[in-house]
From TrEMBL:
Its EC number is 3.1.2.4. Gene3D superfamilies: 2-enoyl-CoA Hydratase, Chain A, domain 1. Keywords: Hydrolase. It catalyses: 3-hydroxy-2-methylpropanoyl-CoA + H2O = 3-hydroxy-2-methylpropanoate + CoA + H(+). CDD domains: crotonase-like (cd06558). It comes from Shewanella litoralis. The keyword Metal-binding does not apply. This is 3-hydroxyisobutyryl-CoA hydrolase. Residues 18-355 form the Enoyl-CoA hydratase/isomerase domain.
């Protein structure tokens, strides 16, 4: 039986080892299951305190994807069977996923993420947690939650709000597919290599003079990646996000009704913007409101507070939002004809958004109460 996630160690000339995690469900684009997340949590918690492990690498099997998100079917079936109730499945999955994402952010040792191919949703949560985030000419990076009645979670409340101008809001509403240059511009990626450089990279990493000093190891890896990136910078594609930053900021200016009107009446010949427009306008009206609520968090909250806020919203979405209908239309029946709870953005009742953004827990009994900065 094939393991859904594979753990290996790579020996190095220094005597230190590199821990390698391979997401291994190629046919499902390496989508995360609860068992995979639990296994990674256990292994990386062990590696974090293992003095022989100098660095950790996360990669996906196959050439199509690093990770296309979370496998949410189990949450869907449990939520359908228990309408208007927060299920153990939803709470368990999101809690475990956010705990693992947070572990990556706080890991201390270098975490290199090979972000080749599709990196979406939960996959982007993993990537954002890495210290060294590599994008390639095949990278396609997006937060497509607006299409399933969710919102950009997995730490999106933290990293989207720290992007240039209104880029974060634009990415959340439109599920725009970023290329390598876009990802570098918004700092989701911090190094660029071509997809055929993975083996040479691992070979070079095996020859580095790793030690038990994390700061030294971070610098070693950064220097290597900077050197390897240099020859490829000339081949980088254009970044639409950077090139059209001013127009994006204007398009995203104002309150939710202003932005909806601006997107609805947008007349553009830019194909990438047409796709973004179409996706946003077909998305869940509830998701629109949640994405705006998320944007209003600004940069005040710590990473831990962002994950705590997201956990409440995510489980609420499964019990009383558009999530189940979005998953049904996209993943279960695949008719791509979701019947959202509200006909349009203007029809959404504020009381529903207040319910969705009110945590089911208080500070003492919150499942992520132990998150510390």
């Amino acid at each position: 039986m094939t393991q859904d996630v594979i753990f290996q160690t790579l020996g190095t000339l220094s005597g230190q080892s590199i821990g390698i995690v391979t997401l291994n469900i190629e046919k499902a684009l390496n989508a995360l299951t609860l068992d995979m997340v639990a296994a990674m949590q256990t292994q990386l918690t062990h590696w974090q305190t293992d003095d022989s492990i100098a660095c950790v690498v996360l990669q996906g099997a196959g050439e199509k994807a690093f990770c296309a998100g979370g496998d949410v079917r189990a949450i869907y079936h449990a939520s359908i069977a228990n309408p208007n109730n927060i299920t153990d499945e939803a709470c368990g999955f999101f809690t475990q996923e956010y705990q693992f994402d947070y572990l990556l952010h706080q890991f201390g040792k270098p975490v290199l993420v090979w972000g080749d191919g599709i990196v979406m949703g939960g996959g982007l949560g993993l990537m954002a947690g890495g210290s060294h985030r590599i994008v390639t000419e095949r990278s396609r990076i997006a937060m497509p939650e607006v299409t399933i009645g969710l919102y950009p979670d997995v730490g999106g409340s933290y990293f989207l709000n720290r992007m240039p101008g209104k880029t974060g809001l634009f990415l959340g509403l439109t599920a725009y597919n970023m290329n390598a240059s876009d990802a570098l511009y918004v700092q989701l990626g911090n190094h660029y290599l071509t997809s055929d450089q993975q083996e040479p990279l691992f070979d070079a990493m095996a020859e580095l003079n790793w030690s038990q000093d994390s700061e030294h190891n971070h610098q070693l890896l950064s220097d290597l990646l900077t050197t390897m990136t240099e020859p490829h910078l000339a081949t980088l594609p254009d970044s639409h996000l950077q090139q059209f930053q001013t127009q994006i900021d204007l398009l995203m200016a104002g309150d939710i009704l202003d932005v909806h009107h601006q997107l609805s009446t947008l007349n553009t010949e830019l194909e990438w913007l047409q796709r973004a427009q179409k996706t946003a306008l077909a998305g869940s009206p509830i998701s629109w409101h949640l994405i705006f609520a998320q944007a209003q968090l600004g940069t005040e909250l710590s990473l831990a507070q962002c994950f705590q806020w997201e956990l409440g919203v995510s489980v609420n979405c499964c019990s009383m939002g558009d999530f189940c209908e979005g998953v049904r239309a996209l993943l279960i029946d695949k008719d791509r004809q979701p019947k959202w709870l509200f006909s349009d953005v203007e029809a959404v009742e504020q009381s529903r958004i207040d319910q969705l953004t009110t945590s089911p827990w208080n500070a003492d009994n919150h499942p992520l109460a132990d998150f510390t900065e």
